[in-house]
């Protein structure tokens, strides 16, 4: 047991449930519907990445050093803080007929709406724990993901806007007026952006591969009310150098200026070097480093309050190491597990900041800080 004798300097809560892994994305082939030219296979968003992350946390012994929260089912009145009843009814009808495509590239099974309610409820339970001081920070290991879900459309494997609903709950219940979102999933956090675009009390920051998904989304010109939306589209092939430069030039100054009362991280691991749905090159150490920067700012501005919602990441062999690194950092674990892929990824050509990456980051910085 690697973490058997570890100590943790933070009170970190983990929300996990076997039921999250029962969300059925059916026999699509990656993200394509089977046909006479597309052989049925497994959907990219399947339980394996999340289940293997949970398994690794348990196998290393870190599991015993976290506090564990049970998700609660989110009722319609909670979901209606973001989604109209027509959206809930649509999802219910898809599930009642045995499943199918619930929106744009978003398959669902018979129990998917009920499991999505548990994903939302898990985020709300985590928010309550952090806001009441029962935990300093929390990680929600949920399925289905949420950051692409629009108020009236399931999209990109996401049925309900998990993080956005948690934020609306915090605004309503605790009266917070400054909440920051930092989304480093390789795909643009378009759903979260759409929910809060007219809300200057929520700063939304998305670092993503330029024009990957959704197409024509995530440009630097979308600034939101009070200049509270920041998109950082990074060139394909961006690695450690580009992401750290983006943090130092944009994310850290923006969070410092905003002085949030809570930070929410829609946390996808599909910017990793071995993910099938992106062509960026991050390692687990990069996710650990980004988490550390956010924690420093959270300590400065909001008593360390951070809630992490698990989003994308489609490499079953590597997501567990990235997720473990984030959980180790959140909990302040005295031991860290060596990443068996670390040296391999670190030696990828192009990990250093390139001229085109620096120029893209400067354009995004100028778009926000010069306006």
UniProtKB/TrEMBL annotation:
A family per Pfam: Hist_deacetyl
A single BP term in Gene Ontology: epigenetic regulation of gene expression
GO molecular function, one term: histone deacetylase activity
Gene3D superfamilies referenced in this protein's UniProt entry, alphabetically: Histone deacetylase domain
Domain (Histone deacetylase) ranges: 43-328
InterPro entries: HDACs (IPR000286), His_deacetylse_dom (IPR023801), His_deacetylse_dom_sf (IPR037138), Ureohydrolase_dom_sf (IPR023696)
Family to which the UniProt record says this protein belongs: Belongs to the histone deacetylase family.
PANTHER family per the UniProt record, alphabetical: HISTONE DEACETYLASE HDAC1 (PTHR10625:SF10), HISTONE DEACETYLASE HDAC1-RELATED (PTHR10625)
Designated name of the protein: Class II histone deacetylase
């Amino acid at each position: 047991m690697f973490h058997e004798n570890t100590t943790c300097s933070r009170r970190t809560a983990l929300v996990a449930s076997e039921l999250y892994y029962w969300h059925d994305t059916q026999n699509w082939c990656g993200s394509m519907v089977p046909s006479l030219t597309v052989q049925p296979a497994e959907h990219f968003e399947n339980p394996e990445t999340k289940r293997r992350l949970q398994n690794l946390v348990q196998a290393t012994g870190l599991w015993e050093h976290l506090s564990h929260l049970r998700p609660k089912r989110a009722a319609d009145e909670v979901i209606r803080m973001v989604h109209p009843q027509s959206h809930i009814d649509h999802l219910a009808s898809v599930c009642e007929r045995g499943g199918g495509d619930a929106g744009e590239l978003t398959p669902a099974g018979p129990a998917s709406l009920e499991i999505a309610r548990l994903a939302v409820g898990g985020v709300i339970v985590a928010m309550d724990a952090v806001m009441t001081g029962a935990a300093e920070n929390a990680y929600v290991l949920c399925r289905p993901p949420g950051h692409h879900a629009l108020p009236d459309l399931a999209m990109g494997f996401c049925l309900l806007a998990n993080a956005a609903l948690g934020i609306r709950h915090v605004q309503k219940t605790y009266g917070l007026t400054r909440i920051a979102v930092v989304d480093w999933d390789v795909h643009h956090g378009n759903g979260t952006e759409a929910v809060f675009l007219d809300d200057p009390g929520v700063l939304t920051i998305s670092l993503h591969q330029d024009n990957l998904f959704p197409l024509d989304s995530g440009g630097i010109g979308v600034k939101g009310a009070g200049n509270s939306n920041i998109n950082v589209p990074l060139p394909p092939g961006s690695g450690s150098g580009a992401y750290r430069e983006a943090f130092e030039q944009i994310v850290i100054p923006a969070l410092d200026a905003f002085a949030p009362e809570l930070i929410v991280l829609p946390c996808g691991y599909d910017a990793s070097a071995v993910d099938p749905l992106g062509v960026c090159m991050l390692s687990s150490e990069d996710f650990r480093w980004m988490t550390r920067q956010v924690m420093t700012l959270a300590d400065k501005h909001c008593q360390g309050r951070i809630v992490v919602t698990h989003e994308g990441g489609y490499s079953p062999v590597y997501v567990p190491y990235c997720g473990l690194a984030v959980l180790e950092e959140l909990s302040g674990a005295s031991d860290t597990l060596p990443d068996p892929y670390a040296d391999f990824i670190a030696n990828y050509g192009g990990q250093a900041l390139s001229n085109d990456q620096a120029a893209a980051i400067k354009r995004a910085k100028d778009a926000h800080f010069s306006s």
